[in-house]
Write a structure and sequence with these properties.
With about 400 residues, the protein is α/β, with parallel strands linked by helices. It is built from 16 helices and 12 strands. Pfam families: Aminotran_1_2.
């Protein structure tokens, strides 16, 4: 396949059911107009002049970090200081590559983002093999791995090392939530007090849950249980970049040891202006309405698709079975729907012919037998758009079950 085919432009001819723009910020006329007004009044727009440790650390950066600290911090929260990064990938990699030391150990869900794993393997803890992945969302496996880590590193229980625990709130490939309460409870039971460091990645829940879009930890009242949190701006915020919320000491350490902080040019002033604009929007009444709209549409899509799939063989097309903890059911609904099919390429091509920007996801991105397309719901979608998309899925499934050639012109 030519390299150009790998980076071909995505279609925009049909409604968006595939991006991470959950609150439809990127297509909001209100946000666009507010951004342009703020940009017009901004004293500086282009560039930043250097890295944060060079000439790039002006009042604009300290101001946005203060706003993020006020939004994501609060009384009793250990993760109360903010450090802005050019991307969530950089943020995760810097934290995990610099903070864990020799003598520490890391227990992590096997499905955490590759940016976390890259950092872990580069860390001093990783260089000694002190990495303990556990089966995704399996509490028994988590307990076993914690036990192994403590047994092999007795210095941690003696207060001479730290056991780091890493999970995400919402796993983007499967659309399922971490079993946070069970994980925190098990950690409390097994890890001596003061010897654990809980790190949670809120990339896919920042802006989407909690008061003012503070995230799933705030939604569940668990914000005081963590030591470090990652929030990113490339999903519900419709921007790019990320922020690590952690202690002042760790923030300082990451600044001095994190190469992306030391050597990357800081985000341009226009981007900081955009972050301020979206922060205003996400924390406004309009932001709350958009969050509720996403929840309503997710429930609608789930119900309608489940009804449609009753006439389709699960061997051809099915929704992935996602176990949802009871404390999630009322207020928290995943906007991510993995639709599994062995004919994932055929389905993607069929939907692409209708203008949908769908991606066929196969091995090694997912295990063999778990091939899929992945649908995400956005506040800007409508019930009519969802109905038409489901109808399109059903036309493809009907054609496949009846042995027809799946061409748009014939269906």
């Amino acid at each position: 396949m030519p390299i150009s085919d790998l980076l071909r432009p995505v279609s925009t001819a049909a409604p968006d059911f595939f991006s991470s723009d959950y609150l439809s910020v990127t297509t909001s006329p209100f946000v666009r107009d507010a951004f342009l007004r703020n940009l017009a009044s901004s004293p500086r727009i282009l560039g930043s002049g250097g890295s944060r440790l060079g000439t790039g650390n002006t009042d604009a950066y300290t101001h946005i970090e203060e706003r993020l600290r006020n939004l994501f911090g609060g009384p009793g929260i250990h993760a109360c200081d903010a450090l802005l990064f050019n991307s969530g990938y950089d943020a995760n990699r810097v934290f995990w590559s610099t903070v864990p030391q020799k003598g520490d150990a890391i227990v992590f869900d096997n499905y955490v983002h590759i940016s976390m794993k890259d950092g872990m393997f580069q860390s001093r803890a990783g260089s000694t093999g002190a990495l303990y992945p556990f089966e995704h969302n399996a509490i028994v496996a988590f307990k076993e791995r914690v036990g192994e880590a403590l047994k092999e590193h007795p210095n941690i229980s003696e207060g001479k090392g730290t056991l780091f625990v890493a999970v995400e709130t919402l796993y983007s490939m499967d659309g399922d939530f971490a079993r946070l309460r069970e994980i925190f409870k098990a950690a409390d039971e097994l890890i001596p007090a003061g010897c654990a460091h809980m790190m949670v990645d809120e990339a896919h829940t920042t802006g989407l849950f909690g008061p003012d879009g503070r995230g799933l930890l705030f939604e569940l009242g668990l914000e005081t249980r963590v030591d470090t949190v990652l929030h990113t701006f490339s999903k519900a915020w419709g921007m790019s970049g990320g922020v690590i919320m952690t202690s002042p000491l760790i923030r300082k350490y990451m600044i001095m040891r994190g190469k992306p902080v030391m050597f990357s040019t800081a985000l341009p002033y226009s981007h900081i202006c955009g972050l301020n604009t979206v922060l205003d929007y996400v924390t406004s009444t309009a932001g709350s309405e958009q969050r509720e709209r996403v929840r309503e549409l997710c429930l609608y899509f789930s119900d309608c698709l489940a009804k449609g799939l009753r006439s389709v063989s699960p061997k051809l097309l099915r929704l992935d079975d996602v176990e949802i903890s009871s404390y999630h059911r009322q207020t928290v609904v995943s906007p991510i729907f993995p639709i599994l099919t062995p004919a994932y390429t055929s389905l993607a091509n069929f939907l692409g012919a209708y203008g949908y920007a769908v991606t066929a996801i196969g091995f090694p991105a997912v295990p063999r037998g778990q091939e899929r397309i992945r649908v995400t719901i956005h506040a800007g979608n409508t019930e009519a758009e969802l109905d038409e998309f489901i109808a399109c899925l059903m036309r493809w499934a009907s054609g496949m079950q009846n042995g027809k050639r799946l061409e748009r012109s014939r269906l």
